Amino acid sequence: MRNLPADPIRSAALTSNLASAIHIALPPRLDPLVDLVVPAYKDSPFLAECIESLRNQNSTRCRVLIVTSTPSPYIQRVAEEYDVPVLVSPRPSGIASDWNFALESATAPFVTICHQDDIYQPDYSTAMLKAIQASDDVLIALCGNTEHTSSGPRPIQLNLRVKRLLLSFAFGDRHIDEARRVRWRLLSFGNPVCCPGVMFNRRLLSDFRFVDTLKSNLDWDAWDRICAKEGKVAYVRDSVVSHRVHEGSETSASIASNVRLVEDFGMFQRYWPAPVCKLIMAMYKRSYSGNRA
């Protein structure tokens, strides 16, 4: 039998119908629920490892962004390697400025300001989204953490044990509590909150900004002000973030310059009279050694 020539009109129609059928079969693309925003400062040798951990999240509802006030070929190269967009801040570099730009760059309902030195477990986003969506009025979600150095996982130090005890004291056996009720229990004896693990509810905290008058305790001040608001705080007990301890960190620098000492005393004065603050500080200063790698 002689082959008949193909009908171009009929072939085009079949191709169009097939494309439409495939398009209909595909699930709709969902917008991200959380933006994982990394403020990249200068050329951190740990940036790529952090970005890789964020790109390996189990949740498909998260988006990774890099923001920076110190753009460089190195940052751009890491971003291109992991297919992550870079947003450059127009403001002078500074911790408060960089963190505020990170908040403002997010468009998803929830946002985490991820620290470039730290590593996020694959279930970080899934666990935190579940916690922060447990109630419509959750302001922030906190989480547990481990620590590591360049040599690998770090054995649990006294400093981390105390932080876990303070978190247990604040929440008891609850996973969620009223912010104003948990504020004193959580923050009056120090700052046990793992800053790089905190997830913010942008809808409820649209006007929140970090203060630029503090160098070391921007986060402690932030949790204090947020917990003074009406709403709830959620807590994920699992250690879904690993904090890197190294001599080049901002925490180490603030301890070495005594900035941390002055700011810690000022924070304790929000909760206690001066004589009590001095007693607490006498013990609290011992925790500074826990930041040595």
How are the secondary structure elements laid out?
Elements: H1 8-25, E1 34-40, H2 47-55, E2 62-68, H3 73-81, E3 86-88, H4 95-105, E4 110-113, E5 119-120, H5 124-132, E6 138-149, E7 152-153, H6 158-171, E8 176-178, H7 179-187, E9 199-201, H8 218-227, E10 232-244, H9 250-256, H10 259-268, H11 274-284
Parallel strand pairs: 1-2, 1-4, 2-3, 6-10
Antiparallel strand pairs: 4-9, 5-10, 6-7, 6-9, 8-10
Structural overview:
There is one protein chain. Mean pLDDT is 89; it is low at 11-16 and 18-24. The chain is globular, with a radius of gyration of 23 Å. Strands 1, 2, 3, 4, 5, 6, 7, 8, 9 and 10 form a 10-stranded mixed beta sheet that branches. The chain has a single domain (34-291), classed as Spore Coat Polysaccharide Biosynthesis Protein SpsA, Chain A, CATH 3.90.550. The protein has 293 residues and is an alpha/beta fold. It is built from 11 helices and 10 strands.
